[in-house]
Amino acid sequence: MSTSLILACIWVLAAAGVSLLPIRRQYAPGIVLLAVAPALIIYLAMQHDPWIILVSLAVLISMFRRPLMVLIRHLRQRRGGEQP
């Protein structure tokens, strides 16, 4: 198994562990996991076929769908777009 796949498996296990924490304690480790994810996806794509990017992004969006929606809403409001 390649290094990138081992790191991806560790990332998934860490995300599962964070999901077991109470909501107020999920924020900081969740941000770290979300920040590390793009680098890990790029590393996976470099060591494996590029289609792995699509699979990895689908997993990432599935796991972080609500925080990503909040982030998108926040960015739109900062740009003067959509108002609540």
Please give a quick description of this structure.
By secondary structure, this protein is mainly α. The chain has helices at residues 3-19, 23-47, 51-63, 65-78.
Head-to-tail CA distance between termini? 47 Å
Order of helices and strands: HHHH
Please state the CA-atom Rg, rounded to the nearest Å.
Answer: 15 Å
Low-confidence regions: none
Structural class: mainly alpha
- Our estimate of the beta-strand percent is under 5%
Q: Give the averaged pLDDT, no decimals.
A: 87
Number-wise, the strands total 0
Helix content: over 70%
Question: Could you explain how this protein is built, in words?
Answer:
The protein is an all-alpha fold and 84 residues long. The protein has one domain. Helices cover 82% and strands 0% of the residues. The protein is built from 4 helices and no strands. Helix 1 packs antiparallel against helix 2. The model has no long low-confidence stretch (mean pLDDT 87).
Short key terms for the protein model shown above:
single chain; about 80 residues; mainly alpha; about 80% helix
Present the secondary structure layout:
Elements: H1 3-19, H2 23-47, H3 51-63, H4 65-78
Helix pairs in contact: 1-2, 2-3
